Amino acid sequence: MHRAGMLWESRSGPLAFDPKSLDELARKLAEAVPPGLAALGNDLEQNFKAVLQGGLAKLDLVTRQEFDIQAAVLRRSRERLEELEKRIVALEKAPPGK
Questions:
Q1: Do residues 8 and 51 share a domain?
Q2: Closest CA to 49 of 74, 79, 71, 29
Q3: Can you give the residue range of the structural domain that contains 69?
Q4: What phi, psi does 22 have (nearest 5°)?
Q5: Residue 96 half-sphere exposure, CB side, CA atoms within 13 Å?
Q6: Pick the residue with more confidence: 46 or 69?
Q7: In terms of C-beta density within 10 A (0-12 exposed, 13-18 middle, 19 or more buried), how is residue 42 classed?
Q8: Do 24 and 49 have their domain in common?
Q9: What is the DSSP letter of 35?
């Protein structure tokens, strides 16, 4: 299980939101409700949690580690592309038969 912020990767595959962080966020949202609605605290917390889970499930998220790896691959690919472009320019300028 790899933790990156509030995300975790299960062995079954896709990324999910860390349940502890999700519970904490739902609790904080419920605590932020005005005092007149405080009696609904537990219900609100459960509803907030359900809404958060549903919204996050729709997002296509990756871990920071995966992002950094892909950024490095992209950087290397761009560097290689620049090298190849320079070689093409040099080959196009070279006299024929050389």
A1: yes
A2: 29
A3: 62-98
A4: -65, -45
A5: 0
A6: 69
A7: exposed
A8: yes
A9: G
